[in-house]
Amino acid sequence: MQQADWWRGAVLYQVYPRSFADSDSDGIGDLPGLLARLDHIAGLGVDGIWLCPVYASPQRDFGYDVTDHCAIDTTFGTLEDFDQVLQAAHARGLKVLVDLVGGHTSDQHPWFAASRRGRAAPTADWYVWADPSPDGTPPNNWLSVFGGSAWSWEPRRRQYYLHHFLPSQPTLNLQHPACLEALLDVARFWLDRGVDGFRLDAVDFLTHDLRLRSNPAVPPPGGVVPAKLFALQRHDHDMIQPASMAVLRRIRALLDEYPGTVALGEVSSQDGAFDRIAAYTGTPDLLHMAYTLRPLRHGFDRPTLQALLRDAIETCARGWPCWSFSNHDVERAATRWAPDGQADPAFTRLLLALLLSLPGSACLYQGEELGLPEAQVQEEDLRDPFGIAYWPEFRGRDGSRTPMPWETEERFAGFTPSWSAPWLPVPPAHRALAVDAQERDPDSTLRFARALLRLRRAEPALRHGRAAPLDLPAPLFGFVRETADRSVTLVFNLSAASVALPPDLAGMQGLGSFGAVQGGLPAHGFALLVPAMARVPETV
Ligand code: TEU
What we know:
It is built from 16 helices and 20 strands. The protein is of the alpha/beta class. The strands form five sheets. Strands 11-10-9-5-2-1-13-12 form an eight-stranded parallel sheet, with helices on one face. It has a five-stranded antiparallel sheet with strand order 14-15-16-20-18. Strands 6-8-7 form a three-stranded antiparallel sheet, with no helix packed on it.
C-alpha cells in the first residue's frame, strides 16, 4: 500500500479534549494532559487521532463555536502545546486529524461581530442574512438542529441570520468567494503546521438554497418531542445542496498540495446517509472518507445488521465509509444498542469486534476501548445546551462526554489533579473501568481491544479485504473479509444464550484467542476464523 493511502482501513482514536485529561487543575481536559496520556493511545495500535476542536471559543457548544480558527483556546493550552502534541504523536507513528468547523463560527467571531454591525463591513456577506417575511417573521420555515427557527433577528441590520445549530453559531456563507478563501486559509494554516488532515464538521450543512425556499413538512408521527422537531421537515433546501460539492472540491484540491493528508467528513443521520457517504467520497476530487452518526438507526438486531452489511459493501464499492458507533454527539453504543439498555462486557466486545471488522476505516471514541457505558448525568450537572433545552424528553449529549477514568483509586478517577469537581462528573460505574484497573486485568475490555487492533494491523484481510455476506442461521450473523490469498470469517452470536456453530465453521481455526469455544459461541460471543491449518499472524 502506498504511504499516501494510509487512511484506507485505518483506525482513528477520537479525542474529546475537554474530557480526556486535565493537567492544570481547572477540571477541564487540555493539550498538556493529552500529551501526558499519548502513550495510552499509541499503545492501542491505532493509526491516528481525530482531535475535536481546541480553538479559541466561548465554549457555548464546547468548541464547535469558534472565534479564532488559528488560535488555541486558553482552556486547552497554547499553540506551542499543540505543536508538542503533534510532534509527539508523529514520533509515535500516529497521524493527527483536527476538526475543521467550516460551516459556522461563534457569534463572537470578529467576522460576525463586523457582519452584524452593518452592510458596509468587509465580512458583511460572509454570513447568511435575509430580510424578514412581510409580517416580520423569519424568511422561511427552516429549523435549527437544536430546535426552534434556524433564524435569529439582528436589530442593527434589521435582518435575520441563519444558524443551523445554536443562535450563537451563525452559518458562514461559503458561497461567497472571499469567505471560502478565508476558510481555505485556515486549513492551510494547520496543514503548514503539519497536521495530517481534517474531520470536516457537518458536511451536509455547508451550503443552502440561495432562493431560501421553505422545506416541505413531514406529517407528524403523533406525540411530537420538541427536541425532534427538526425531523418533522424534509430538508430539501437547508441541507445537502449540490453547491457543497464545489466547497469540498476546493478543500480537496488544497489537501492534494499536502501529500498524505486526508479529509474525513461528518454526514448527518438523515435518510440516505450511506448514499451521501458514497457521493461525498466517490470521486478522487472530493472527500477521502466519511462517517454517519447512528449507522444503525433501527437498533441492534439481525435484519438491521444484515442491512448495515449490505450498505457497507455497497458504499465501499462506490466510496469509502468510516465507521463510528460512539462519539461526543450520541449515546455510547455499549448502552444504546445493549439488548436491555444495560452495557455488559460480552456485548460491548461484540460491538468493538464489529466496529473493527466492517470494511472501511473506523473511529474509536475515547472510552470505547474501556467499554464505558453511557453516563447517567443528573439534571443539575447538565452542560450541553441541547440537553438543557429539552430535558427530560431528550437528555442531550453529556452522557457520552464525561471525563476519561484513568486511575481507579484516585480522586475523580485521575482525570484531574484538582480538589474540586471536573466540568462533568465521573460516573461511579466508570471508576471500576479505569485504565489502570484494566491494564492489571488480563481479561479486560482494554486488553481485548488492543489485541483486536493488533490483529487488524497484522491481518491485511481485516484491513483491506473485500467483504461478502455469509448466510448463517439465526441468531448468528457473519461475513467474510478476503484478499486474493486470505479469507477471514467473522461470526457473531446476537443472542444472550450460547449457540453451536454450523459444522463447517466449527471445524475452523480461531485467529489467536478469537476462536470458537467447543464448536460454539457463548452469549454475545463472536469468532474470527480461518481454515484449519492456515497461517496465523505472529503478533496474535
Ligand atoms: O455535529 C453536527 C451534526 O450533524 C449534528 O446534527 C448532530 O446531529 C447533533 O450534534 C445532535 O446530536 C457537529 C458536532 O459534532 C457537534 O458536536 C456540534 O454541536 C455541531 O456540529 C455544531 O457545530
